[in-house]
Amino acid sequence: MKVVKFGGSSLASAVQLIKTLQIIKDDPKRKFVVVSAPGKRDESDVKVTDLLIEYGNAFIEKQPLEEIQNKIIQRFTEITDELEIQDVQKTISENILALADLEEEDPARIMDAFKASGENNNAILYASFLKKNGLNASYVNPKDAGIIVTNEPGNAMILPEAYDEIVKLRDREGISVIPGFFGYTKDGKICTFSRGGSDITGSIIAAGVMADLYENFTDVDAIFSAHPGIVRQPREVKELTFREMRELSYSGFGVFHDEALFPVFRADIPVIIKNTNNPEAPGTKISTTRKVNGLPVVGIAGDRGFCSLYLSKYLMNREVGFGRRVLNILEDFNINFEHMPSGIDDISVIFRENQLAPEDEDKLLTRLKEELALDEITIKHDLAMLAIVGEGMKSAIGVAARATQSFADADINLEMISQGNSEVTMLFCIEERYLNRGIRAIYDAYFK
Ligand SMILES: Nc1ncnc2c1ncn2[C@@H]1O[C@H](COP(=O)(O)OP(=O)(O)O)[C@@H](O)[C@H]1O
Ligand SMILES: N[C@@H](CC(=O)OP(=O)(O)O)C(=O)O
């Protein structure tokens, strides 16, 4: 059996839903369908999830709700009218309006209940659409599916015991349509995954039902070696390992959520990324191993929004526990660091800017300077991390040399270089404003 996930772009309009119907009909093994909320119909459009966030904010701030409610209902009505499944529209409209009766104080929980209703109502809609077209399909609420998650609004994680329930879905008759993006806490509260989290639901269901394949349908023929908005017509990647995909997703490939790989990786279930608009294209396969085709690098990813703390102290190398004390102070500020390159007498800590509230910056620097008796401490903002990824890098010589030369030729100064022991990724920290130029330079160096 196969688990299929349709992303927001695949369900943005009636025309898109009709394409997905053919995909489901083409293969009777497609027994589990995980759906996102309707996404963007074109570049200028707004995703239903973003409309629901606007609705949730208006509700929290006790502002008028009618306009935004109508906008959301209208998005669904356009689809149900065109697909002639108007009977289900009444339920969806009522569900959207009922959000305004929510009795909940915590803004984060309110927001999750609002966000989740995009996927939930779309699953109700989608099951009705499949039935109308002669398929034996039914909607399954994530609670009934057994998707029990941690109590972290907007950032939930699946609990291990959830799999004991999810496996029971195998016995269901017909096609099960499951909303993506959210689960329930042990005490029955809705909690969403982080943004893009329907990919995670698909992976959880695939691992839970022990599927043969997890098919993730999106709007591109394959995963490309670089973001198609940055490099013109980048090369398609036929195969990736889980490790390569994890590194690329984490470093900025928005096409597949980085946390979504974990369940399928552990269960050793291959993933295929395919295009709803061109399902004949072979797509990109992600699995444990792949043939290394001679090229050391498979992809180049980049992400903005980092900052770097530079700490220096003469004879730091002699001080036992120095690193631990730095990290303890960071922990007090709830900062999760990404990288920590070090020299003899200095250490840098790179973390995402959103980890540190601007009003806390001075406090953090003062505490570090005083408690660690530093000679110097500085913080640099507006940095980007650029990652070069490929299993083939392990056995290739000169990968770093070629990259650093390309940065030099493109007139880009390197703030930091780091290569993990796995040798699957090499990371470069550069100024944010040079990120796209850097990606293009590195792409040309490895693929042209
Ligand atoms: N390296 C990449 N390869 C393919 N697509 C990428 C890459 N990096 C970013 N993307 C973007 O990811 C988009 C698909 O992801 P997403 O918007 O989450 O789709 P969905 O609506 O199917 O969930 C593509 O349209 C593309 O612009
Ligand atoms: N709709 C949610 C979850 C999701 O996965 O959506 P998409 O498949 O459109 O990336 C979001 O926008 O975050």
TrEMBL record:
Keyword flag Kinase: yes
Entry-linked InterPro entries: AceGlu_kinase-like_sf (IPR036393), ACT-like_dom_sf (IPR045865), ACT_Aspartokinase (IPR054352), ACT_dom (IPR002912), AKIII_YclM_N (IPR035804), Asp/Glu/Uridylate_kinase (IPR001048), Asp_kin_monofn (IPR005260), Asp_kinase (IPR001341)
Signal sequence, renumbered to the chain: none
Pathway: Amino-acid biosynthesis; L-methionine biosynthesis via de novo pathway; L-homoserine from L-aspartate: step 1/3; Amino-acid biosynthesis; L-lysine biosynthesis via DAP pathway; (S)-tetrahydrodipicolinate from L-aspartate: step 1/4; Amino-acid biosynthesis; L-threonine biosynthesis; L-threonine from L-aspartate: step 1/5
Enzyme Commission number(s): 2.7.2.4
Molecular function terms from GO: aspartate kinase activity; ATP binding
Keywords in alphabetical order: Amino-acid biosynthesis, ATP-binding, Diaminopimelate biosynthesis, Kinase, Lysine biosynthesis, Nucleotide-binding, Transferase
Function: Catalyzes the phosphorylation of the beta-carboxyl group of aspartic acid with ATP to yield 4-phospho-L-aspartate, which is involved in the branched biosynthetic pathway leading to the biosynthesis of amino acids threonine, isoleucine and methionine.
Residues in coiled coil: none
Protein name (database record): Aspartokinase
Domain called ACT: residue spans: 388-448
Family: Belongs to the aspartokinase family.
Pfam families documented for this protein: AA_kinase, ACT_9
GO biological process, alphabetically ordered: diaminopimelate biosynthetic process; homoserine biosynthetic process; lysine biosynthetic process via diaminopimelate; threonine biosynthetic process
Lineage: superkingdom: Bacteria
Gene Ontology cellular-component terms listed: cytosol
Reaction equation(s) it catalyzes: L-aspartate + ATP = 4-phospho-L-aspartate + ADP
Binding site for ATP: T218, D219
Record PANTHER family: ASPARTATE KINASE, ASPARTOKINASE 3
